């Protein structure tokens, strides 16, 4: 008789699953006493994971908020859960976190866990924020445990009565250092030639590319700085809108829409970059910036929940007030033109990453939750 503890993780894009969950799911699955499956849509990244031996189950999930699509996804997930009979369902992010939790409850899954990757309501104000806050708190009734990557959101839920509905656990977040071993020991040097700026983020509204584009325009016009390129890594519904915006702002000559890349390629691209930037409205605990830090790439990012636990202001990068495009541009310009400050931040970044961003520590925290609640 198979007594392994079966876990099913759930994400609504195959690239997101590949990028954020692949190594953790693989490591848990190799643990004695565990089986770890991963639900995500079909696609090239799903196929890659299957070839790696990861137990992938394809379900047509999306970001659609149409009631018909939500009902369809819940129905399909209930079928999967009843067929596989998992001991634990572990959902991620807002939309799949909602449909996944409801489906798991309907299928009588013994332990339902939801991992917060940055609350959706953080980017809103007024009545819209209140509605999303209500929905998040209501959905906490549909899981046994809520997991948090950053302390701000953990404390928010503690202060706002979420513990009445579910157990709250802080687990942190990290990166698989084994994937960076060829780069970590290298002494990264300041680049005196054309600069490369990297932004690894989904092409969606929450990532706030509009602020980044404003800063790029300021770099060109106010600082007469054009000896650089901004490389955008990701995918998303705003791709065409962002390309049109870059054209209309006359900054398309310094922006490259690279798209999604395999792990080896994206790690190489980030390492070859001189600066990593992120202008998000909110984050869980941004893996892209942890990766940049491990590779010795200094950072300029918005001072928001999640990001401010990765970027140590004036140590491995600069934190800038959300919406302050002028100061964001200034910080980019300063770092790319000050070899001493850049080198100081680069060396600090690697030390901070080694100390704080090890995925294996997060996995141990998750395993403890699986076994002990």
From TrEMBL:
A GO molecular-function descriptor: glycosyltransferase activity
Record CDD domains: GT4_CapM-like (cd03808)
InterPro entries given in the database record: Glyco_trans_1, Glyco_trans_4-like_N, Glycosyltransferase_grp1
All copies of domain Glycosyltransferase subfamily 4-like N-terminal, residue ranges: 33-150
Pfam families, alphabetized: Glyco_trans_4_2, Glycos_transf_1
Location of the Glycosyl transferase family domain: 184-350
Source species, domain of life: Bacteria
Protein name: Glycosyltransferase involved in cell wall biosynthesis
Organism this protein belongs to: Oceanotoga teriensis
